[in-house]
Amino acid sequence: MLAGAALAQNTEREVRVGVYQNEPKILLGPNGQASGILGDLLQQMAIQEDWVIKPVVCEWQACLDALAAGDIDLMPDVAYTEQRAQTYNFHKVAALLSWSQIYKRSGVQINTALDLQSKRVAVLSGSIQQTYLENQFLAFGIHGTLVPVSNLQEAFAQVAAGTADAAVANRFYGDRQAAKYQLDPTPILFQPSQLFYATAKGRNADLLEAIDRHLGVWQSQTDSPYFKVLKQWMDVPPRFSVPAYVWWSLGGLGVLLLVAVGVGLHLRREVADQAWHLQSTEARLATILNSVEAYIYIKDTELRYQYANRRVCDLFGMEPEQIVGKTDADFFDAATHAHLRINDLRVIEHGERVEEEETNLSADGSQENTYLSVKLPLYDRNGVIYALCGISTDITKHKQAEEAIHRLAYYDPLTQLPNRRLLMERVQQALTAQRRGSEQGEHGALLFIDVDNFKDLNDTLGHPMGDALLRQMAARLGACTRAEDTLARQGGDEFVVMLQGLSADVDTAAQQTGLVAQKILAQLGEPYALGDHSYRTSVSIGVTLFSGTGMDQDELLKQADLAMYQAKKDGRNLVRFFNPAMQAQISARTALEADLHQALVRNEFVLHYQPQVDSAGQTLGMEALVRWQHPLRGLVAPMQFIPVAETSGLILPLGRWILDAACRQLVAWSQTPATAHWHLSVNVSARQFHQPDFVAQVEQALQQSGARTGLLKLELTESQLVDDVENVILKMQALKAMGVCMSLDDFGTGYSSLSILKRLPLDQLKIDQSFVREMLTSPKDTGIVRAIINVGQSVGLQVIAEGVETEDQRAALIALGCTHFQGYLFGKPQAL
Ligand SMILES: Nc1nc2c(ncn2[C@@H]2O[C@H](COP(=O)(O)O[C@H]3[C@@H](O)[C@H](n4cnc5c(=O)[nH]c(N)nc54)O[C@@H]3COP(=O)(O)O)[C@@H](O)[C@H]2O)c(=O)[nH]1
C-alpha cells in the first residue's frame, strides 16, 4: 500500500503556472488554485495527465519574464505573435479566440468607426490596440483623441467619469466589466487574436503536446470539459475558425447580448468583483506572509492552529491543511507545550500582548530553537477575542553567537571553567549577598590552589602534557565540589574554588572548608595518565574565610594567595589557612615596596664589602653586598628588600646602580698598590641578567668608570641559567670576550647540570654556605663539598667556599682541595 502510494507520487508532474488577474480568462481561485477559463481547462487536463498545478501569482509582464527565465513552466492567455515566437513555444490548437472592442458611456453615439470623430478614446498605453487605432484614424481621416491609460480599469473609469468618451478592451474583460462602469459595448470590434498556453523556448514540449491533444478532442465534442468550462464562465461559447471579414459585423450581436444580461447580471458581477478583490488581496497577503522570514500563525480559542505560513509548514514538515486543527502538543515536547499554552491563554483569556523569548524543543527532542515571539489577540466585530496571531523570529543563531561571546569573555578555553573575571564577579555577588544579610551570617571560603612544580612538567614532558594535566585537574576539582560552588581557573597552574553556605560559626566553617581542601589535596594527588606516562603531582592550597564584613574580592584573593604561598613555604602538598600574621606580612611588604621606590631617589643604598682570600689568608678581592640605609628602619639587609625589588621590577635600576658603584670602587682601589689587583664580585639578579641590553650595561659601567675589565666578577646563580640556555651562553660569551670574570653562586643548590656547566664560560664555582656550615657534622655535606671541588678541578674552574666561619671548616676545605675562601672568619661585609 505504502509502496503503491510512493509510486503514484513519483509519476506526478509538478507544473508551475503563471497566474495573473484577467477574469474570466485566468485568475487565482478562492482555493488558491489557478481558475478562470484557461485555469479550469488546465485543471481538467491535470486530472488526466497526473499534473500537480502550482499557481505562481504574478503581474502579466513579470509572468512572461518568469516563463522565459524558467521560473514557471507554463503561461496561459498568450496571444501568438511572430516576435513572441522567438522567446516562447506555443501549442497549435488555439485555446480561446478574442478580439478588441470599443465600449462607450451611455448617451454617447458610436456605431461605426467614423463616429469616433472628435471623440476621446481611452486605450492601453503602448498596446497593439493603440497602434491599430492610430493607423485607422489616419487612414479614414478621423480626428479623434487617443487617451493613453495604464490599465483597463482606468480606461473604463475615465469613460464613466466623463474624461473619455469611449474605451478599448478585450472582449472578455469588456463583457464582464462594462456594466459595472455603466458602459455599453459598441458594434466596433477589431484585431481578432488566438490565445494559447506558452512555454519557454525549448522547454516543456510535453506540456504543449498534451494541451493540443486535449483541446483537439474537446473542441470537437459539445459535451466535453472544454464547453462545460466555457459555459460556466461565459454562458456563451466562443466561436472558432471565424473568418476575419465577419468581425466587423459582430457588433450588433454584442449589443444585444449586453442588453440581455441586464440588471441581474450587473448585480451578480458586483458580487463577483468584490469576491475577486477579496481573493486578490488574500493572494497578495499569502505571497507576503509566505515570503517573510518570520513564523506567522493563527490559533483559535482552543489553541488549535487555524493558519500557518510557509515557514511554519517547513518547520513542522507539513502542508497547511495538515497543520490546521492541530495544537502545540502535536509539535513540541510536553514542557514546551505547557509553557506555550500559558502564554497563549494570557492572550486569549486576558487580551494581553505577550512578547517573550521562547526556547522550544520539538516533540521528538531532536530540534531546539529559540524564538522572539509576539502574540496578539484578534477581535471580531463585537469586540470578542476569537483567535490569537503569533509572529516568531528565529533567534537561535543570534543566541548561539551571544553565548560564544559570553564564553570567550567569562570562561577559560582550556578547562572550560569560569575564568578570573567571572570568579571575581561571583565573589563580589557572594559578598554583597552576605552584606545584605540574605545569607544569614553564613560563611564563605576561597581556596587558592597552585600546582606544585608545574614548571618541571612543562619543561620535561612539554606544554601539551601540561595542558592535559590542567584539564584532568579541572575535572577532578569538579568532582570534589558541589554544583553551587564556583570553580575557576585563575590562570597558569592556579585554580580557585569558592564555597558558599558554610556554617555561621567560624570554627565549624573552617572545619567544613578543611574537609573540602583535604579532599582536593587527596584527589589531585592521585596519578594522572598523560600520554604513556603515569604522572604524580601535588598541589598547595591557601584558604581564607569570609562573612561579608570589610573585605573586597581582591583582598580576599590576596589572602588566599598568601596562605597558598605559606603552604609552599612549609613544604608543599599542604593546606594553609590565612591568618592575621600573614596579613601583617602583606602590609609590611606593601609598605616596604612603597619605601623602596623612594630609596633610589633619595640615594639610600650603600655597598658593603666582604673579603675573599686564598689558602694563605691573602685577600684577593671582595664581594659587594648591597644594604639599604633607611632613615627609620636603620640598615636593612638585602634578604628583606631584594625579593621585593625583584617582583616590583625595582631590581633593574638598583642593579644598575650597584654595577656603577662597584666599578667606581674598583677604580678607587686601583689608586693604591696594595689593593690595585683586587677583584670585585657583584651579584646579578636573574631579571637583571635577562635584560636584552645587560651586556651593554656592563660595558657602559666599565667604560664610564674606567675600571679594569678583568677585575670585575659577576656572580650568577644556577637557577637563572637554566631558562633559555642558548641565549644565556651567548650573553656570557659576550661578557667573557670583554674580559669580565664569572662565578657560579650557590653551586649545588639548584639543577647542577654538568652538561650545561661544561658549556658555560665560567671562571669560578662558589660552594653554597649551607654545605660548608654542615660539612663538619654531616658526611653527606662533606661529600657534596668534595664533589663540587672535584667537578671544579676537573673542568679547570677555581672553587671558592662561602660562609667559612671557623678554622676547622677552613682546614677541612683545604684538605679537600679548596683554594679560595669567604666568610666571617676572614671578615664580615662592611662599609669601607
Ligand atoms: N642582586 C643582588 N643580590 C644581593 C646583593 N647583595 C646581596 N644580595 C643577595 O642577598 C643575599 C644575602 O646577602 P647578605 O645578607 O649580604 O649575605 C651575604 C653575606 O653576608 C653572607 N655571609 C658571608 N659569609 C658568611 C658567614 O660566614 N656566615 C653567614 N651566616 N653568612 C655569611 O652570605 C651572603 C653572601 O651570599 P652570596 O651572594 O651567595 O655570596 C645574597 O645571598 C644575595 O643573594 C646585590 O648587590 N645584588
Automatic annotation (TrEMBL):
<dbReference type="Pfam" id="PF00563">
    <property type="entry name" value="EAL"/>
</dbReference>
<dbReference type="InterPro" id="IPR001633">
    <property type="entry name" value="EAL_dom"/>
</dbReference>
<dbReference type="InterPro" id="IPR035919">
    <property type="entry name" value="EAL_sf"/>
</dbReference>
<protein>
    <submittedName>
        <fullName>Diguanylate cyclase</fullName>
    </submittedName>
</protein>
<feature type="domain" description="PAC">
    <location>
        <begin position="352"/>
        <end position="407"/>
    </location>
</feature>
<dbReference type="Pfam" id="PF08448">
    <property type="entry name" value="PAS_4"/>
</dbReference>
<dbReference type="InterPro" id="IPR013656">
    <property type="entry name" value="PAS_4"/>
</dbReference>
<dbReference type="InterPro" id="IPR029787">
    <property type="entry name" value="Nucleotide_cyclase"/>
</dbReference>
<dbReference type="InterPro" id="IPR000014">
    <property type="entry name" value="PAS"/>
</dbReference>
<dbReference type="Pfam" id="PF00497">
    <property type="entry name" value="SBP_bac_3"/>
</dbReference>
<dbReference type="GO" id="GO:0071732">
    <property type="term" value="P:cellular response to nitric oxide"/>
</dbReference>
<dbReference type="InterPro" id="IPR035965">
    <property type="entry name" value="PAS-like_dom_sf"/>
</dbReference>
<feature type="domain" description="GGDEF">
    <location>
        <begin position="442"/>
        <end position="580"/>
    </location>
</feature>
<dbReference type="InterPro" id="IPR000160">
    <property type="entry name" value="GGDEF_dom"/>
</dbReference>
<dbReference type="InterPro" id="IPR000700">
    <property type="entry name" value="PAS-assoc_C"/>
</dbReference>
<dbReference type="Pfam" id="PF00990">
    <property type="entry name" value="GGDEF"/>
</dbReference>
<dbReference type="InterPro" id="IPR052155">
    <property type="entry name" value="Biofilm_reg_signaling"/>
</dbReference>
<feature type="domain" description="EAL">
    <location>
        <begin position="589"/>
        <end position="832"/>
    </location>
</feature>
<dbReference type="InterPro" id="IPR043128">
    <property type="entry name" value="Rev_trsase/Diguanyl_cyclase"/>
</dbReference>
<feature type="domain" description="PAS">
    <location>
        <begin position="281"/>
        <end position="351"/>
    </location>
</feature>
<dbReference type="GO" id="GO:0071111">
    <property type="term" value="F:cyclic-guanylate-specific phosphodiesterase activity"/>
</dbReference>
<dbReference type="InterPro" id="IPR001638">
    <property type="entry name" value="Solute-binding_3/MltF_N"/>
</dbReference>
